[in-house]
């Protein structure tokens, strides 16, 4: 996010409500204001996950993440769901490289190899490369479809034109025969 690291915990906890807000306020009273707001984002995420995400639910999410793949060319939905699941299933990725490998593993074959070959070092880099490649593929598909449609329309027009010409030739030939047979009489 665009939030400075030292303000992430403060910002996130300001959005809490109901039971989560009560629990946070109790935590602040217990450990003190400075300690509570001085914790790292990672620590807050672990604390919230431990409290509000039962282990069996996390396992289900891990299974979903394990099976997650891009559907068609909808990279944006895949990326968003991947990031949501990766936040909750953080124990699956001890290092950034593990997360990148899993993300790239869910990409379609048409861009997978190119993303791997680019050797992204950061998750955001992998996402940007994949997005750029997918956008190019989608544009290429659209251009081919338009070109194919134009070719079909031109072929169709040419066929219709040829049919009209042949029909006119038949009519003209018929007229010539009629005129010629009329001259012989």
UniProtKB/TrEMBL annotation:
Transmembrane segments: none
Retrotransposon gag domain residues: 10-108
Source superkingdom: Eukaryota
Biased composition (Low complexity): 155-173
Stretch list, region Disordered: 150-185
Name of the featured protein: Retrotransposon gag domain-containing protein
């Amino acid at each position: 996010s665009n939030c400075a690291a030292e303000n992430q915990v403060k910002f996130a906890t300001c959005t809490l409500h109901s039971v989560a807000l009560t629990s946070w306020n109790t935590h602040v009273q217990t450990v003190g204001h400075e300690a509570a707001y001085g914790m790292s984002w990672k620590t807050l995420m672990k604390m919230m996950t431990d409290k509000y995400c039962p282990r069996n639910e996390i396992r289900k999410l891990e299974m979903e993440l394990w099976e997650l793949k891009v559907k068609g060319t909808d990279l944006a939905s895949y990326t968003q769901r991947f990031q949501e699941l990766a936040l909750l299933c953080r124990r699956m990725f001890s290092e950034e490289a593990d997360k990148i490998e899993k993300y790239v593993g869910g990409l379609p074959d048409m861009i997978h190899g190119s993303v791997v070959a680019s050797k992204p070092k950061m998750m955001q880099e992998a996402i940007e490369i994949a997005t750029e490649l997918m956008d190019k593929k989608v544009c290429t598909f659209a251009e081919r479809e338009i070109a194919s449609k134009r070719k079909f329309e031109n072929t169709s027009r040419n066929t219709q034109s040829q049919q009209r010409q042949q029909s006119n030739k038949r009519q003209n030939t018929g007229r010539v025969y009629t005129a010629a047979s009329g001259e012989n009489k």
